[in-house]
Amino acid sequence: MTLWQNLSHQITQASGKAFTLKNYRGAGGGCINEAAVLEGKEGRSFFVKLNRPELEDMFAAEAEGLQALGEPGEIRVPTPLCHGITDGRSYLIMEHIPLGGPRHSRVFGEQLARLHQHTQPRHGWHRDNTIGSTPQINTWSNDWVHFWREHRLGYQVERARSQGAGQTLVEAVEELMESLPAFFQDYQPQASVLHGDLWGGNHDSDAQGNPVIFDPAVYYGDRETDVAMTELFGGCDRDFYAAYDATWPRDPGYGVRKDLYNLYHLLNHFNLFGGGYAGQSERLARRLLAEVRG
Fold first, then answer.
1. What is the pLDDT of residues 246-293, one digit of tens each?
2. Are residues 243 and 114 in the same domain?
3. Cα–Cα–Cα angle for 114, 188, 154, nearest 5°?
4. pLDDT tens-place string over residues 20-70
5. Are 134 and 272 in contact (CB under 8 A)?
6. How many domains are contained in the chain?
7. Which of the residues 197, 222, 226, 259 is marked catalytic?
8. The pLDDT value given to residue 226
9. Per-residue pLDDT at 1
């Protein structure tokens, strides 16, 4: 059997309903994975991600992340079906949601705020996952400052050092890491369930205009990290932020902390892609240090 026939068999086994492949077509999978849509003769269709077999655990973590975001029922998330290895490829199969419908920014802002209201006592998650293709460490912690220092900034700057980042960048981030408590003197974030990678390419609307989020890097932590990333690459409009704040207002210190949170993603982009992200990361770290020094 071909890869596509084997994947069709996995759909039948996992769903308990016959799935006979009618057609398959390539789909946008980003820069990390290959992707396709499988259409069945019975009228159902599924979205499939493919990668090297050694990355199967990445797909297992993504499947659990989709479940974690979907369980509260606040915002639409593709339902994962199954994952595994076949024909020398790792795969993740999930519900196919046709995207590109009308965008309702206020609905998205309200739904994201409601999702963030689902909290638990500790920061982190029960397993590690990935941010892009970079490992993301989610070891549980009762201390958000410790978590952000060790498992977000610290992890990324060590990878940057090993990949040849300039000493001035490394020193700026390390000095900032020592200054983290200054950003949280009057703010104790709750541990909200987070998408974790909420740039503009990871949310859209279905055909009916319902907001949809996908491609997560889930953990529990400060909700400001999700909101901050919506501003990093593309951003959302004012209606989105107004609706979010009407549902759960952001703390006044968000305007500074958003840079602290987006530094993590800029460092990760340097580690993934190199180039100008090093200079952008260093400038942001030094701007944050200037805030601390007054």
1. 999 999 999 999 999 999 999 999 999 998 999 999 999 999 999 998
2. yes
3. 100
4. 999 999 887 667 899 999 999 999 999 999 999 999 999 999 999 999 999
5. yes
6. 2
7. 197
8. 98
9. 65
The verdict on residue 157 lying in a domain is yes
Say how far apart CA 53 and CA 19 lie, in whole Å. Answer: 24
Q: CATH code at 228?
A: 3.90.1200.10
Rounded CA gap, 215 and 34, in Å? 13
Q: Residue 170: how many CA atoms within 13 Å on its side-chain side?
A: 13
d(CA 82, CA 63): 8
Domain that holds residue 250: 105-293
pLDDT of the residue at 29: 63
**Residue 55 to residues 127, 192, 233, 269: CA-CA distances in angstroms?**
15, 27, 26, 19
- Over its C-alpha atoms, the chain yields an Rg (Å, rounded) of 20
Distance, in Å, from the CA atom of 264 to the CA atom of 147, rounded to the nearest integer, reads 12
Dist CA 288 CA 184 (whole Å): 13
CB 227 within 8 A of CB 254: yes
Query: How far, rounded to the nearest angstrom, does the alpha carbon of residue 102 sit from its chain's CA centroid?
Result: 23
Which residues make Cβ contacts (< 8 Å) with residue 71, sequence separation at least 6? Answer: none
Residue 181's Cβ-side half-sphere holds a number of Cα atoms within 13 Å equal to 2
Please give the model's pTM, rounded to 2 decimal places: 0.96
pLDDT digit string, tens, across residues 67-103: 999 999 999 999 999 999 999 999 999 999 999 999 9
251 part of the active site: no
Enumerate residues 6+ apart whose C-beta is below 8 A from 77. Answer: 66, 69, 70, 212, 213, 214
Which neighbouring-strand residues pair with 38?
A: 24, 46
pLDDT digits 0-9 by tens, 167-212: 999 999 999 999 999 999 999 999 999 999 999 999 999 999 999 9
Same domain, yes or no, for 191 and 217?
Answer: yes
